[in-house]
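Task: complex structure prediction.
Instruction: return structure tokens for all chains below.
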Amino acid sequence: MAGEGDIKLLGMVVSPFVVRVRMALHRKGVSYEYVEQDLFNKSELLLRSNPVNKKVPVLIHGGKPICESLVIVQYADEVWSGKGASIFPADPHERAVARFWAAYVDDKLFPAYIGIMKAATEEARAEKAKEALVVLANLEEAFAQCSKGKPFFAGDSVGYLDLAVGCNLFWLEAIRKMFGVTFFDVGKTPLLAAWAERFAGTEMAREVVPDADTAVVFAKKLQARFGSNTSAK
Amino acid sequence: PWKAMHDPATQIWTSFIAHEQKRDQHQSSKQHGGPTMAEKGVKVFGMWASPMAIRVEWALRLKGVGYEYVDEDLASKSDALLRHNPVTKKVPVLVHDGKPIAESTIIVEYIDEAWKDGYPIMPADPYDRAQARFWARFADDKCNAAIFPVFTATGEAQREVVREAQRCLKTLEKALEGKKFFGGDAVGYLDVVVGWYAYWLPIIEEVSGADVVTDEELPLMKAWFGRFLAVDVVKETLPPRDKLLALNKARREQLSA
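Output:
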């Protein structure tokens, strides 16, 4: 199909934002060259492709870079619109709702769980864990609203919001292993708990999502490198 | 886009506006909570001094869509607003045939899609759309955070934050190169998203005594300010300058006290 070929993804194995893009590309059935980046020693290619933020993921399509994971996912759905599965729903209101919650996840969930990792005291960690649980409670409502009784946020199969939330699951599992925080309580967020298992079981997730232990190893490396007075399990 | 709603700068901004409104005589119709039946038509829950809310008006007017504007008292939010946006409780919220959408940049994209046969707000090409979304995010995340300190800083500290704000805006300015508007020959998504700078920045400059967008430092942006402010839908919607100036002056005093 026109537009395929010459597709590179600059990524880092445990970045949830990179995982998000890999999921999207999987949904579109697009093949690409994956180039792992060392974020402590950024490559010429990365700095040239994303001079503004110098971050991964960067999708380079026909030599042109696209940055910001949610921007890339939308781009992939638009530029390969005839290919693979649709990531976005067709209805404008449903699209707006999906975008709203995806942005909410990046604004609220990611900082909360990163905060759990970085917390210098038990009190600080507990505070961040509480924040994360508030977010998940809201996402439970969102799931009820969006899924309308179906297995995924997007309905019968995964869509934009599933990817936006789902790419973080392996990190939530890593943090559960390290700090004992339970994110998915079947009593409190039953829909989300069931969805999380279902999501992890998809062929896409099994292919693209790294093991939680990989994230644990990375987190410990970061703690060693930057020094942290919190100890993980 | 989401970051814009939650970054400290915007939060402080809108909360300070809320505080001012308690003493402000300007009042307009306040929607009281009503039945949750689907109502036909378009409603915008906004606030007269909010740059995020005005984006929604610009997008609707570009499409030629009529709407009812509900001016919220941010210190005492209406039941309707809280019902329509329980998650963040913020303005703007668009309610279209009874269905609410929150988050200004998301609302703008929604407007473009819901009235797809009208004026094209988003670029047509997927790569250009990606660029527009990227820059919108950059502006709301980075530029806004860099601009707010200019408002409150003084002396040497102000010089430093002005330089930082200019650095951010210079990066954004790259998206203007060779074009009349960010959208090309006509205003587009990115103009709607960052257009508020054209009106609010000069007010911030006047209130704080700083010069940020100058011909020397940001010539393209300065020129674009003039072109953008001349656009009809923009002219029609801008809040009165004296009121906005007074509001910002008072708030700066309050923040420095």
